[in-house]
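Problem: given the chain below (504 residues), write out its structure.
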Amino acid sequence: MSRSVSRSVSRVVVVGAGVGGLAAAVRLQALGHRVTVLEQADEVGGKLGVLRHDGYVFDTGPSLLTMPHVLADVFAATGAPLEEVLELERLPVACRYRFPDGTVLDLPGEVEAIPAALDAALGPGRGAQWEAFLDHARRIWDVTHEPFLESPIGLGDMVRLSRRASDVVTVAPWRTLRGLGRRHLRDPRLLQLLDRYATYTGSDPRRAPAALAAVPYAEQRWGSWYVPGGLGRIATALVDRLVELGGEVETGAEVVEVTVRGGRADGVRLADSSRRDADVVVANADARAVYERLVGTRAARREGARVRRATPSLSGLALLLALEDAPGPQPHHQVLFAEDYDAEFDAVFGLRGPPRPVERPTVYVAAPDDPAVVPGPGAGAWFVLVNAPPHDPRGGVDWDAPGLAEDTADAVLDLMAERGLDVRTHVRHRAVISPADLERRTATPGGSIYGTASNGARSAFLRPANASPVPGLYLVGGSSHPGGGLPLVLLSAGIVAGLVGPPA
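Solution.
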């Protein structure tokens, strides 16, 4: 059951200026609360970070926006519409895929064109296979999007929703995403394409629930979008809207404790020992970090123990490449698939051995064709990412070990060249962001991008709740319900605003 707070609420402190925290702040300020956002870093954005170097601008987080109507709803509900604030550009090619056999697929940005493109690239009948799968995925979306993605949910809600036998059969909580794919897709390249969508939640497709089929359905139904100037502009636009409404954002303000009085959150304490009183605290931070580091109640410790038992999501190692005379033209997004995807997931999640860097990983490349992010013609600001196990010096991979991150980056560039995308002689500057760096930048344990993995139905649908066990404390962002990725993070902000409600 959802919980709301007293209608006398007026002061709200949001801990963290990631997209979820900023979107929640904007919605709550528009409802009439007095909202202050406190961010430990010197810049806003959280995992939607931006790095600038000699005229190059890099998004260090998401490279695409899907389900743009979710972002539009934040602005429409709080003032001027999105189109007056940000330009969105729909990509004609959602992604170029290179499969291990050398086949190249340019997946169109318009869903109607996808079957023909699959037939042309992979062979006749592949489009029909994908259409059959996507039809099942649509039915999963229809069943799950409102109760599971747009509303607060707990175990009782799942039991209640499971009483409709037809819905249970559609969602098939006993089946994995890989298992669902095998029912519809006979081409191994289509299965590999589907497996990739499990990584959107930091998960293993062999254990992630079939319900995640809703992810490719939503992406392909609403298309893939880019924000000229970089996706970091989304965070800037949210800050601007918040300030226009009378809210405040303070950077360089590290929260070290959520204070509790009479069993209820009543403010926060900062690293400089100052205190901010609040009627409601919204934590846009990793759920595990909130319960283990910021809140000291017994209920928080119990919840922290539960979160700690869950499998951490995968992390990533990123290369920010400032290129001269960049090879082109290139699609905005490319995926160079691993020869052995299962070996990749085994390494990342510590199966058949301890967690370890992937020897030959899938490589994700974002190469925006955008003059606003480069210093001049022919230059390229490329973001390259490979899946990686979280930073865990005690029981896994120590990404701070001398040379490990840089050696891995060298290997990734060599692998790109081997797979037909050689930029080694074009690199003017390179920055490497390891899982250890992600942990430090975002205060996320291990640098796990999505908090916990959706490995199993309970993990997927019972992420840490937005209403915490501590009255007056709410969680927003990718590690809490409904999950990671820009659209779900924005939905979590709407859920939190609904739980808090307007002041009296």
